[in-house]
Write a structure and sequence with these properties.
The complex is a heterodimer of chains A (473) and B (318). Chain A has two domains: 97 residues, no CATH class; 317 residues, Cytochrome-c3 Hydrogenase, chain B. Helices cover 41% and strands 17% of the residues of chain A. Chain A has 16 helices and 15 strands. In chain A, the strands form six sheets. Chain A has a three-stranded antiparallel β-sheet. A three-stranded antiparallel β-sheet of chain A has the order 8-9-10. A three-stranded antiparallel β-sheet of chain A has the order 13-14-15. In chain A, a hairpin with a 5-residue loop joins strand 14 and strand 15. Chain A starts with a helix and ends with a helix. Chain B has 318 residues and is an all-alpha fold. Chain B has one domain. Chain B is globular. The chains are: A alpha+beta (473), B mainly alpha (318).
Chain lengths: 473, 318
């Protein structure tokens, strides 16, 4: 039933994940603005395929099979996803059995004269994460791209089992280094929901400060890096300087450039000194003042505009079907932002706008990032000016209260990030699941590249900037 | 005595271009880095890199043929020879009479032919992509280059570089529209031939966008050193060519005294440095062109060359 509503576009898929004996499905109902979690026990090791009706669920189902051994019935794609046959065991989180070793991975077939395949990766020439891209091209034009991911699977969900909250928070912060504040925030919120405690108001505000600072740093990095992929190094140099300034200010405020391990269940580890906050606020004004310059260089360089406008167009229909969050969804007309649609604190008491564009090309994704930087800088100032008084953390109960499950949806810089946690009697993590926004963005990259030339793929890819480590877990 | 002196000058010329080429590459990189607010590697870094590569033994793919192994030597020799034919600091090189602009163009073309073949040799997809793009660019750049050569030959009455330069230095040259058009065309061709922006990005790490870099991806050790050196030499060649034909001042004439040779050398260094800095500034201000725009870019060069040639037929004073 839920599958059919998902397929019809009534619900947006948030997450689909497994346990040894059941699967969970979470979706968001745009009509009522409510999110829900459904659980289906599967005693026979099978569950009905959602991907059969709703393709965005396919890779999630393949992952459930790889990790737990639960099979999706009538799934149109039963190939493994994260498991490349090099793990010691099969189904590491379910009924384990020794691995039978790597098997050939059949890529989707392409037929036609004059078509040739270009395999790229998993090792790339730049310093980026590993992923394999299989292009089928007719001359320079891409007729199919198929991704293969899973090279940075570290077994995070397995590592989290049985860990106490402090250790678990440290692990959650390291799922994807560039999104550490958002991941920590999501984990903390999920744990607080599971324990039914409310973090102090100051903690909420400081968490938002971390997440917004992270967003500004990453967006600035992306804006420069996308232009650099069009060999326009000036923008890259300029944005890198700004990003570096932000990271140094973050170091001053939170004692770590990426603000790692600052957000913990129950609140914040430390409160930034007033002097450091003042510097961050000054910096936000300085960057806001330099944004029009960036925008002008970007919009008035014809050689650059020629590369980005009309390149890698993502249709609105696909963005909605895949419930793709973040910049990618908003550049294709899908207005969803967990900060305003779920209005978790402190965003309910802050003023900000969510920019949306309809074009869905690389240009739209860059422009949205520039506008979001502007909004986030304004948010940083609002937060620093309005920081409430009081403690920054509160002690957590040492025992759980039934049922001990919690979910959270946090808007990271890539989009909405889903976290689910269940605690055991000692208030340690029993099971935990994270769904990175990239899960619903990677498949769209395949669609976006179709019909473009191979040489434009790096530009499209960078304008998506999906996470490998957040996806592979 | 005359023979000894001219041979000596040719030897100096050959050594000079070889010694200067990596420095020119280093200079362009340094200028770009400074313009982007970075310190950048020192200008001598390309020399260190070459030394480093020469000391390493090459790693060959198991299916690499003899062609893959000899191609770097051929490419380097062709490019070095072509560069040695362009008067840099003095006129009247002994090789001059045998080697004119057409010979230089064909030497460069032969080097490219072997580079494209060697890129295809081990059968990697990037090599194939690079070779096909390079050949596409060359098929447009070479005719444009020949039209420029025709224009110069029609104006100066010879395809030999020393004669052209001597003519350009004479008062009879005047202001000519056709020469301006040929100059513009040669600039565009030089950018394309040397894999510079906006055609190709020499600094990229993105395999899928590369042209020249994709072709040499499989090379290592001394093979790579030779190819890098050949690429630097080619850049120097085009700078020298532009300098000699269109800015011929300061060149020493045959049989001149030692100080005038030295002055010629200084002028040459100045020309190279100016060209290097200009290229650095130009490349910083520009994004790379979409691959399928390259025909438009080189089409412009071809049209400029054609227009220059045609103008000569309209009036001998244009």
């Amino acid at each position: 039933m839920a599958g059919e509503t998902l397929a019809a576009g009534g619900y947006s898929l948030l997450a689909l994940w497994g346990e040894p004996d059941c699967v969970h499905l979470s979706f968001w109902d745009a009509g009522s603005g409510a999110a829900a979690v459904m659980t289906l026990p599967c005693p026979e090791g099978r569950f009905p395929s959602i991907g059969r009706l709703h393709p965005p669920a396919l890779r999630l189902e393949r992952t459930i099979h790889d990790l737990f051994g639960l099979a999706a019935e009538e799934s149109p794609d039963a190939r493994p996803w994260l498991d490349h046959g090099v793990w010691e065991t099969r189904f590491p989180l379910g009924k384990t059995s020794p691995s039978s070793g790597p098997t050939p991975y059949p890529f989707l077939p392409t037929e036609g004269e004059e078509l040739h395949q270009v395999p790229v990766g998993p090792v790339h020439a730049g310093i980026i994460e590993p992923g394999h891209f299989r292009f089928t091209a007719a001359g320079e034009t891409v007729v199919r791209l198929e991704e293969r991911l899973g090279y940075v699977h570290r077994g995070v969900e397995g590592l989290l089992r049985g860990e106490d909250l402090e250790q678990a928070a440290a692990l959650a912060a390291r799922i994807s280094g560039d999104t550490t504040a958002a991941y920590s925030s999501a984990f903390a919120q999920a744990v607080e929901a599971a324990l039914d405690v409310e973090a102090p108001s100051l903690a909420h505000w400081l968490r938002a400060l971390c997440v917004e600072t992270e967003r500004v740093a990453n967006h600035l990095g992306d804006i420069g890096a996308i232009c650099n992929d069009a060999a326009f190094a000036r923008m890259h140099a300029f944005c890198s300087v700004l990003r570096e300034k932000i990271l140094r200010a973050a170091d001053l405020c939170f004692g770590h450039r990426l603000m790692m391990d600052q957000i913990i269940p129950g609140g914040m580890r430390t409160v930034p000194p007033g002097e450091a906050l003042r510097k961050l606020r000054e910096l936000s004004e300085e960057i806001t003042a330099s944004l029009p310059g960036i925008l002008q260089v970007y919009e008035t360089t014809p050689s650059l505009q020629d590369r980005v406008v009309g390149t890698g167009v993502l249709s609105r229909a696909l963005a909605s079907q895949y419930a793709s969050g973040g910049v990618i969804g908003r550049a294709s007309g899908r207005l969803f932002d967990a900060r305003c649609h779920l209005a978790y604190p402190p965003y309910s008491s802050l003023r900000f706008s969510v920019p949306v564009r309809e074009e869905g090309d690389v240009d739209a994704r860059i422009s949205i990032r520039i506008r979001e930087v502007e909004q986030s800088l304004d948010l940083i100032r609002q937060i620093i000016d309005g920081l409430p008084e009081g403690p920054a953390s509160k002690p957590l109960p040492q025992e759980r209260v039934a049922p001990g499950e919690g979910v959270a949806l946090v808007e990271g810089f890539r989009g909405d990030l889903f976290a689910w946690v269940r605690l055991d009697e000692r208030a340690c993590v029993e099971r935990c699941h994270f769904r990175d926004p990239s899960w619903f963005q990677w498949p769209l990259l395949e669609a976006v590249v179709y019909g473009n030339i191979i040489a434009d793929f790096p530009l499209c890819n960078k304008s998506f900037n999906c996470s490998y480590s957040g996806h592979d877990l | 005595m005359d023979l000894i002196q001219s041979s000596l000058i040719q030897a100096v010329q050959m050594t000079l271009v070889l010694l200067l080429a990596p420095g020119l590459t280093g200079l362009v990189r340094k200028v770009k880095a400074r313009l982007l607010g970075r310190q950048g590697p020192p200008i001598v870094q390309p020399y260190r890199d070459l030394l480093h590569f020469f000391r390493k033994s090459p790693v060959l793919a198991s299916n690499a043929s003899w062609l893959f192994r000899i191609a770097p030597y051929l490419i380097f020799s062709f490019t070095w020879l072509a560069t040695a034919l362009v008067p840099t600091f003095c006129l009247g090189l002994p090789f001059g009479p045998w080697a004119d602009l057409i010979a230089i163009t064909s030497l460069i073309g032969s080097a490219r032919f072997f580079l494209a073949l060697s890129a295809l040799d081990v059968g990697t997809s990037f090599g194939g992509i690079g070779a096909s793009r390079e050949v596409m660019i060359a098929s447009l750049a070479e005719p444009a280059m020949l039209l420029v050569v025709f224009t110069l030959a029609l104006v100066a009455g010879s395809t030999e570089l020393s004669t052209i330069t001597a003519f350009m230095l004479s008062p009879s040259v005047g202001l000519r529209v056709s020469m301006a058009l040929a100059f513009a065309a040669l600039l565009l061709i030089a950018l394309a031939e040397n894999s510079r922006l906006p055609i190709d990005n020499p600094a990229t790490h993105l395999e899928l966008t590369m042209v020249h870099e994709a072709m040499i991806l499989e090379y290592s050790g001394r093979h790579l050193a030779l190819l890098e050196l050949a690429a630097s030499l080619k850049l120097l060649l085009y700078f020298s060519l532009i300098g000699t034909i269109f800015l011929p001042w300061g060149l020493a004439t045959p049989g001149a005294s030692l100080p005038s040779y030295l002055a010629g050398g200084l002028f040459y260094l100045l020309k190279l440095a100016t060209a290097g800095v200009t290229l650095g500034i130009f490349e910083t201000a520009l994004a790379k062109m979409r691959l399928f725009r390259v025909p438009d870019f080189l089409g412009a060069a071809l049209m400029l060359g054609l227009l220059a040639t045609l103008l000569r037929f309209v009036s001998s004073s244009l």
